[in-house]
Amino acid sequence: MLLWNLARRTGIFVATLLASSIVVFGLMAVLPGDPARVALGLNATDSDVAHLREQFGLDQSLPERYLDWLRGLITLHPGTSYVTQTAIGPEIATRIPVTLILVGASMLVAIAVAIPLGTVMALRHRRASGLALSALSQVGVAVPTFLAGILLVTLFAVRLGWLPSSGWTSPQDDFEMFARQLVLPALALGLCQGAIIARYVRSSILDVLRQDYIRTARAKGRQPAQALIHHGLRNAAVPVVTALALQLVYLLLGAVVIERVFVIPGIGSLLTDSVGLRDLNVVQDVVMLLVAAVLVINLVVDILYVIIDPRLRAAS
Amino acid sequence: MKLPTTSRADSVEKAMPDTSGDSSEPEHQSRREVLNVRDLSVRTDSGLQLLDNVSFTLGEGERVGLIGESGSGKSLTALSIMALLPDGVQAGGSVQLRRPGRGDDVAKEMVGGRERELSQVRGKDVAMVFQEPMTALNPTMRVGKQVSESMLIHGTRPDRRSAYAAAVALLDAVGIPNPAEAARAYPHHFSGGQRQRIVLALALANDPALLVCDEPTTALDVTVQARVVNLILRGVQERNSALLFVTHDLALVASICERVIVMYGGRIVETGPVRDVFTRPQHRYTQGLVGASDVRKTDERGRLTTIPGTVPPAGRFPDGCVFRNRCSHATASCSQTPEWTPTGDGKGHACFHPVGEGHPTAERGA
Amino acid sequence: MTATTPEGASHHDAPSLRGRRHRRRWNPNLVAGSVFVGLIVLAAAVSFVWTPYDPTQVDTSARLVTPSVDHWLGTDKFGRDIFSQLMVGARTTLFVGVISVGLAALAGVPLGIFAGMTSRRWAGEVTMRFNDLLLAFPSLLLAIMLAAIFGGSTLVAMIAIGIGSIPSFALLIRGGTMQAMKSEYVLAARVVGRRPVAIGVRHILPNVSGLIIVQSSVLFAIAILGEAALSFLGLGTPPPTPSWGRMLQESQTLLWQAPRLAFIPGIAIALAVLGFNLLGDGLRDIFDPRLEDRR
Fold this sequence. Notes:
The complex is a heterotrimer. By secondary structure, chain A is mostly helical. In chain A, 79% of the residues lie in helices and 0% in strands. Chain A contains 13 helices and no strands. Chain C has a single domain (75-293), classed as MetI-like fold (Orthogonal Bundle), CATH 1.10.3720. Classes of the chains: A mainly alpha, B alpha/beta, C mainly alpha.
């Protein structure tokens, strides 16, 4: 039953992935006008356009082009850019670690903020301190990541001059510079997400605190916080882990914006730059990569759900 | 509280030993006192009065039933004794617990205490069995650990290993088959009756001076109820623990309790030895309750007798006598709060027109 | 589920404790949310008839003016009046919110009701799988992709945000519908043979209307964030139409000289989002007090 469930989820994942690749390809294909002409700009000659069309197989039928594209993605050879004429695969490959580091660091910030904040908000939800923190987290939820980034830059880079306002250095080249440049973007992304996750933590801990077994634990002589630690955390963890994983999607999207604010050469800036250059096959590949990432995250959440909760395991 | 009803909670008397004219508990009783509830009131933050002027005591090893319809305040009384009231309600008055002849025989106040001190009393001097066995145990923790936990918190066993061994012995004592194996299982492996026995095991782990049971068999199948009740009874008798048994099942009270407290509308309306109260109820509410529980007793049309009307929502009982809107004997005088009338031998009631005295318009009861 | 009973009161002898308290309770979320949202609606409404200056009017003699009697919030690098831009920007913000949330509701509500009502397993399954597909395209990603194809515009932003918000609407309404389907009067309507469409419109829709209103408010906040992010990336509302997100983006090069150019639209965005979030929470308390303290 458990295996069947996992197999079913995986099947749905693969089907959705294929369907979304058709959507991405289809949307790109309905583009009004010729992608080759769009990429080359208005001054291109007809022969240049024809050359490019041939080079990228744009004269083939749509199904053929779709299958070619899919084959390229699966074999990790997604072709070359219309505009820069460079290979897309290596370009994406060098940018993936940048975005992953940024997202990972932000996630750590978010968790470090959300779990203690959410727990205190829940334990003190009827006291002024809890309500004040709750209001603060509401404000955090309302602040867009790019605004948080700009505010942090204004304070720490412009006013205080403690940290660089933008840029990216590879950790192998200069670790200290890498770390200093990572702080502000990771904080901007992490604090905003942390505020959202804290609200999930709060509500799932409040849920757990209302459970009968917490009352039983208190009847045994546990103090409220102890009862929560010994009996509540594992149970509260299920919805929190789910929320964390789902927020990963928004971290990824937030990274697209924050990479722009801090001029970080990650996947996000590749995407926004390519949109600016109208470099459509790069856009198509990066979007597909991000869609796949979103789907993988959703799949992992589904699987986690089944694995963490012993009751779900028992039921299956 | 609208009017000072009786003299039973005078500040002067509070300071004096409990031999005065204070009459809500039996005077004949020479047993040492374990629980003393004085003027307990519970109200919501928004001002609804849920418990009003509740006072009673329990002696060492005494078994007392607390009865009444749903919404009469029984469970709130039980939770007040544990100081485990839900959020949004506040207790006033006094609940004192002591552990006579067991080392630290000092009264511990459960109303308005600090959480740290309260948690040292809970699970040790007083323990509780809840109504819902299905949700009372942590689904993600092995039951052996849940039972041994209550001993480890209070340090009543020297180490983890001996606490665990004691937990297995307790599971055995409450009749869980293969206790050593059962201790390693999760709650969802057990039936409702078994889970309730596990809850009982962890409640008895530290030999509490008082065991509070809040409708412990209501959620169980009839066939396993008797088993659980017998285990509770044996558990408290072996430990000479007092028992406060909250239920709406009068037959259960009759079979296990010595004394009974009848609650309605957040107040105690009658108290006394089980036999007296059930055979010669004084309060009109008790009379209705006893009548309604007797399946042989029917009215002239052959239907089972019931108490007319329904229990009002919490905090919305009439002023004066809380029962007067459902009582066929109510008169204008019932808009005053009835005084507590001690009738000797530990008995008493709060009614203007008790059954025994009769009433011009009422038929003679019992 | 019992977990939603805040005080666990139903287990004790005080069953009606809660409902009673909630009806009378002062609802600070609703009040604060209404005030913030009201302010923005007011600014947008007034901007149609009056703004201190033409928000698009360039005045090279008054560049980067600090706040004064003439320019309440100062001017930007082109000498445009910030306060006027803010007022007209509120219009853009509300417009995007209304259209995209409306789009999401128009598609998501029928989808959710259908998925919740249908007794045919495959039909429900197909709807949910369609939802899975939509979930793979979060608003921002969809908007970037559409902007790459059609060029950035307010319309593209609205459509992308609207489509991106369909799944959360559909899932929520499906849950509410499934609950309503179990109620006695729906069973009764089915027993007397009412047609599904009639049941959906007459019985289910009124039942989930609370959910729709609450979710609209929450999605409105998300739409504001989305529009701001897109305009910030230069993929949303194109100049010269004032937009809070683009005001922020234009300010980014001037953080050293005039950080207020970033703060002012930033605060406006945050207030708008906060307002709609609080409004959503407040409405949730009214429509479903059981959900108090969740989220």
